[in-house]
Design goal:
Elements lengths: L42 H10 L20 E7 H4 L10 H8 L3 E5 L6 H12 L3 E3 L1 E3 L1 H4 L31 H17 L6 E5 L17 H19 L4 E6 L16 E5 L23 H11 L9 E4 L4 H4 L14 H13 L4 E5 L5 H7 L4 H11 L4
Parallel strand pairs: 1-2, 1-9, 2-3, 4-5, 5-6, 6-7, 7-8, 8-9
Helix pairs in contact: 6-7, 10-12
Length: 390
């Protein structure tokens, strides 16, 4: 059984890279480094959501042999060196896991996406029903920092009233929005996902603009202004494009003053939760003061703004980059808890979530060599595939 799970798909040269997940300090190997009481909803809430969320209706992929599964997206986010290591005796065959256990979505950071290696890998993935998407923090590419010297007004104003180029930008600047539009179109043309789901995240942990025009907008509002511009550019390239609004860190709470354009979907990432307890234990407190009750309330509020049919959860149950402190030289075992995972699936399904993906960064040959084969990958895939909503 172990041998069957080991990567035998390809026999080309090894390309390794170390990537990062949400919350990781900016560092090496990012996919873009090579580029220029929480109960059931009431009937009133359900009716309200149905009226607001009449866009982005769920469609069934006729090529998916697991099309009757509750969770339509069953995905992973991993590094190229995690999924592709043909000459390593500790390699993991992620594509075989996908084929045998029902994973259908891969977001892989770190490969040279112009290379034949990557094209071949995508072709092999397509044969087993895997679709590819690209999840990354993109603001420094959408609004290049080298514009600051000539156009400081494109960039955010800090609380002291000074324009700074450290993160994100000024969403009230027409020039900034024009740059974001043009660069979103350029980047979207070069890196199209095979499932029409795009991810152009803002800067990881970046602060917002406090200029007179922006100061009354929350971080979520400001993100959505940029995203409403990005989706316009993407629609010119791909009429079926969907764009993620990442509810994470300072954008976890729902936007209140800005409405999403059509085909922007919620991506909910509970980065500050506690993974040793299920979300249903609402009194549990993670780090940064985020209780599970607070997260579930934020999810509820976001689902009043964004369509629940397309809403996606980005989880960290298997993210060894997080659990190892983003130090690949000092890997820690993933604290996988199948009971927590399965209970969380029930919670997400209760709120109508049908799309789930999870980081498994650093779960590659180095992990296998140190800790043995990560059986939690199989438990994760089987759990998503076999789940049935009660």
């Amino acid at each position: 059984m172990i041998i069957k799970r080991i990567l035998t798909v390809m026999s080309l040269a090894l390309v390794c890279s170390i990537g990062n997940s949400c919350g990781e300090p900016a560092g090496n190997g990012s996919a873009i480094s090579g580029w220029e009481k929480m109960g059931e909803k009431t009937e009133e809430e359900e009716e309200e959501n149905q009226g607001q969320n009449n866009q982005g209706q769920e469609t069934t992929d006729p090529e998916d042999p697991y099309a009757d599964c509750w969770f339509k997206t069953r995905g992973i986010v991993a590094g190229w060196g995690d999924v592709y290591a043909p000459y390593s005796s500790y390699k993991i065959d992620y594509l075989e896991i996908a084929k045998e256990h029902g994973l259908n979505t891969f977001s892989i950071y770190g490969p040279d996406r112009t290379s034949q290696l990557w094209k071949d890998y995508m072709a092999e993935g397509a044969k087993v029903g895997v679709k590819f998407e690209f999840q990354e923090h993109m603001m420094s590419f959408l609004l290049p920092r080298n514009l600051f010297s000539t156009h400081p007004e494109y960039f955010r104003m800090n609380k002291s009233g000074v324009r700074v180029e450290d993160a994100n930008g000024c969403p009230s600047s027409e020039g900034a929005l024009e740059q974001v539009y043009l660069n979103a179109k350029r980047l979207g043309e070069s890196y199209k996902p095979t499932n029409h789901r795009y991810y152009f995240w803002l800067d990881d942990g970046g602060d917002i603009c406090y200029c007179p025009k922006c100061k009354d907008y929350s971080a979520s509002d400001q993100a959505l202004i940029f995203e409403n511009t990005i989706i316009k550019a993407l629609k010119e390239l791909d009429p079926d494009a969907l764009l993620a609004h990442l509810a994470y860190n300072n954008t976890t709470n729902a936007p209140k003053n800005v409405k999403p354009a059509d085909d922007i979907f919620l991506e909910f990432a509970p980065f500050h939760r506690d993974w040793s307890h299920p979300l249903s234990e609402t009194w549990t407190e993670g780090n940064s003061g985020w209780t599970h009750a607070k997260y579930l309330k934020a999810l509820q509020e976001n689902l009043k703004v964004f369509p629940k049919e397309t809403a996606q959860v980005l989880e960290y149950w298997m993210d060894d980059s997080l659990f190892s402190g983003w130090d690949q030289s000092n890997l820690k075992p993933v604290p996988w808890n199948s009971k927590v995972f399965l209970d969380d699936l029930k919670t997400y399904a209760k709120y109508g979530i049908r799309h789930i993906t999870c980081y498994c960064a650093y779960v590659g040959p180095g992990y296998v060599q140190k800790f043995g084969f990560p059986d939690f990958l199989i438990e994760y895939a089987d759990g998503l595939r076999d789940f049935r909503k009660e």
